[in-house]
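#help-structures

NK: newbie question. if I give both the sequence and a SMILES, will the prediction place the ligand too? trying with fe (ii) ion
OV: yes, paste both and it writes out the complex. here, I ran yours:
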Amino acid sequence: MACQYFAPCDHGADSFTIAIPKVTFGRGTLAEVGERAQSLKMSSVALFTDNFLKEGPYIETVTNSLKKAGIDYQVFSDILIEPDDVCVDDAAKFLTSHDFDGVISVGGGSVIDVAKAAMVCAKFPAPVRDYFAPPVGEGKPIPGPLLPHIACPTTAGTGSECTSISVIRIRELNTKFVFASPYMLPDQAVIDPTCCESLTPKAVASTGFDLLSHALECYTARAYTQWDKVKNPNARPLTQGANPWSDLAATQALKIAGEYLIRGVTDASDHEARDQLMWGSALAGMAFGNSGTHLPHALSYGVTHLMHDITTEGYDVKSPFVPHGISVVVTAPATFRYTAEATPERHLEAATFLQADQRGASTADAGEVVANRIIELMRGTNIPNGLSGVGFTENDVTRLAESSIRQGRAIANAPRESNLVDLENIYRDAISYW
Ligand SMILES: [Fe+2]
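OV: that's the protein plus ligand as structure tokens.
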């Protein structure tokens, strides 16, 4: 199947590039951070975290480890969920106001993404918006290496510790955008699954669907051989489409999501499930960080841009707020119904990894099989019932589509082309599922 999917085509790419950090995974590995920082020649570290984690045990473990290794550190913790460009500016000022020779980030995707973006803006001063692709920004290239960075995730979802991508909200536009550069890839990822033990079921569910969708999107993404050859090999984007590497990591991440997502959400004492989800999140990061996501992530940006007055239960933030994983999964069943028509075998393979019931299904049923399995997992983890579950109605679909159509690269990475009307139809199909 794989070799058929990557069959060469005229003018299509015939090679792909993979980049991942040095990865350490295991219970208790946060205590290794000091020695790992030493190995990267760090002596004065900027430690990024958030105000919730700042006084907690993970930061205590990391700072004790740094002290033991004789490494100085200063903490920056003014990072909220869904961080914006103003936060990045503040973080960049913090970086430039001290003579740091390394960065350590301890937190969820928001913390790690701010660390990456701030390192760019501190080393090559410019507003972060300039680095986003036009028309939002200027597409300013990042010219060279940044400070060494050790990323330590405390949630199982974004996979940001393993990607060269940062997602930042532009406050003026109230919309999130993605920027990426090989220089933004952390040097090391230290993944300690004990960090997942204290997460609420809501947080595990939301981040778990982010991991699931990363894996499902990169497995079903347009094949890298369908993208044009690049003239400059150093300019090959990491959003290069599905490839044999992303297949390998995404397949295992899908199997983990299929087997452990409901268990990890419903039973905080199920260490096996939560450890597996942490590993699945890293794998999915290593996969989509080298292939790109597609429509569910593109459509999630419209959802977070236009969300109404609903704050998802269990989050201590100002209203309105829809967690990233939920903003992605509310449209995912409808999206895969749409994309399966282009590559039904691929979608059925992915459904198999997710443990979908495929009895009697043919390729014509591929979209429905994938959608039904996602819906089953959503219902098993108390995820809102589609867009209506987070406050949208049919009256919103045009504005949602107009917002999301700006995510050009992700939309082009889908296996099936889509225009504004197609996006409206997907949003309409995503209003409710049960
Ligand atoms: Fe995501």
